[in-house]
Amino acid sequence: MAWKELDLGNKSAKELLALQKKVAAAQAKMTAKGKTALLKRWRSEAKKAGFTFEEVLEGASRRATSKSRRTKSKSKGAKVPMKYRNPKDATEAWSGRGRTPRWMQALLTKGKKKEDFLI
Asked: Where are the beta strands (DSSP E) in the chain?
């Protein structure tokens, strides 16, 4: 059956289900063929470079595991001392990290400098 001749509107639910199964099987077959061809090409490339395919995979897996074993930074999430204080409200302070607070943005637009608010 040619693609242009396929009229799904005239098919019963049973026929559509059978067609769906055929499409899924064809898709799985094509995917498997593609993977096989890709593996064959990679093995050939590895051989040209003087390696076995397994050696290449072993090196790649070592790099992947070494990246995942990295330790987290000890300073991440740590409290840092405040660097700037709002002259109008002493309870508002900013460490200088992250977004500039609204109170400082408002004062900066009025011509003040960050250095004016250093603690």
From this structure: 84-85, 93-94
Instruction: Quote the radius of gyration of the chain (alpha carbons, Å).
Output: 32
Beta strands (DSSP E) in 10-86 are: 84-85
Measured CA to CA in angstroms, residue 101 lies from 41, 82, 84, 94 at distances of 56, 13, 10, 7
Q: pLDDT tens-digit profile of 43-64?
A: 999 999 999 888 888 877 766 6
The tens digit of pLDDT for each residue in 63-82 reads 666 655 666 777 777 888 99
Contact 23, 6 (CB under 8 A): no
Tokens of 62: 């070592």
Contact of 84 with 118, CB cutoff 8 Å: yes
